[in-house]
Specification:
Layout (H helix, E strand, L loop, with lengths): L17 E6 L5 H17 L2 E6 L4 H14 L3 E4 L8 H9 L4 E4 L13 E4 L2 H15 L6 E7 L5 H14 L5 E8 L4 H15 L3 E6 L2 H14 L8 E6 L2 H8 L5 E4 L5 H12 L7 E3 L4 E3 H7 L6
Parallel strand pairs: 1-2, 1-3, 3-4, 4-5, 5-11, 6-7, 6-8, 8-9, 9-10
Antiparallel strand pairs: 10-12
Helix pairs in contact: 1-9, 4-5, 6-7, 8-10
The structure holds beta-D-fucofuranose.
The site of beta-D-fucofuranose has 12 residues, from helix 1 and strand 9.
Keywords: Signal
Subcellular location: Cell envelope
Protein name: Substrate-binding domain-containing protein
């Protein structure tokens, strides 16, 4: 009766975890650093990464997600280009029984069971930090004309960076947002839209708030071509903290940068591993970040990892 069953059992073959990741594009230095970080972290964690880049097209992201479902990947991660329109496709993912992680940006869904966790920065706080910097820097009671380069319309960082900034400056009657327009987070659009701001109201602009560094770098060119001094005639505050922006800040052409960390690869791989091991994850994982100004730029430039 008490015989122990000693029949030899084949050990279960070790199969790599397969992760399908739908990256939204390659519009900025931030994005490229984010992609690198994910590729490297997957390699390090021994996770098989199926990577698709959507060139800022939501339709392409849908296609990528459907292909991940077909491939029966273990986990799907997405960096959604805009917030709206995701509910139907995320239902397909859920029906396929594949857990989904949101990375960097949020897909706005009414049913929270459609995703496991959202890993990324607090963009609202970034916007507030930018607003606080502008208030501290511009102590004069005169009218302060501000222009805003918005990123991609309807994207989480643009919505929240815009709101955080406005919530901080709204009590100051002399701070006026003269113009606010989307420039898709790219250098080219940043330059083009800044140029149009300058043609329409050159002399009135005292501050530029740019939702990312690439657009700010484009705007700097536009300002110089227009014959004004970036960082002096027009105070510039940007978001991300890329090496190139630090170089401009060390030259006094950008006045302050709010950090937004793209190196989310390790956080993502850890979440994937924990998920597969059956552990429960917090619904929101926020990455810590700082603010930098001209005085620190010299010491920091070159040390940046992106
Ligand atoms: O700030 C910008 C990029 O979603 C936080 O997207 C990201 C933003 C980042 O294009 O440079």
């Amino acid at each position: 009766k008490n015989v122990v069953n000693l029949t030899y059992q084949e050990p279960a073959p070790v199969r790599k975890i397969v992760l399908g990741f739908s990256q939204l594009g390659s519009e900025s230095a931030w994005r490229n650093a984010n992609t690198m970080s994910i590729r490297e972290a997957a390699e390090e964690a021994g996770i098989e990464l199926h990577f698709e880049n959507a060139d800022q097209s939501q339709t392409k992201q849908f296609e990528a997600i459907r292909s991940f479902i077909k491939q029966k990947v273990d986990v799907i991660a997405i960096a959604p280009v805009i917030e709206s329109g995701w509910e139907p496709i995320l239902k397909e993912v859920k029906q396929a029984g594949i857990p989904l992680i949101m990375l960097d940006r949020l897909a706005n869904v009414s049913d929270p069971s459609l995703y496991v966790t959202y890993i990324g920065s607090d963009f609202y706080e970034e916007g507030r930090k930018a607003g606080k910097y502008v208030i501290d820097k511009m102590s004069s009671k005169d009218n302060i004309g501000i222009v805003e380069l918005v990123g991609t319309e309807g994207s989480t960082p643009s919505i929240a960076r815009g709101k955080g900034f406005r919530d901080v400056i709204k009590d100051r009657a002399n701070f006026k947002i003269l113009k606010s327009e989307p420039a898709d987070f790219t250098f080219e659009q940043g330059k083009k839209v800044m140029k149009s701001f300058l043609t329409k109201m050159g002399g009135e602009i005292r501050v530029l708030y740019s939702h990312n560094d690439d657009m700010a770098l484009g705007a700097i060119e536009a300002i110089e071509e227009y014959g004004l001094r970036p960082g002096k005639d027009i105070i510039i505050i940007s978001v991300d903290g890329t090496n190139k922006a630090f170089e401009k800040m060390a030259q006094g052409k950008i006045n302050s940068v709010v950090e937004c960390n793209p190196l989310l690869g390790p956080n993502l791989m850890q979440a994937v591993n924990e998920l597969i091991q059956g552990r429960s994850l917090p619904k929101r994982i926020v990455t810590p970040e700082s603010v930098f100004t001209e005085t620190m730029a010299e010491a920091e430039v070159g040390k940046r990892k992106y």
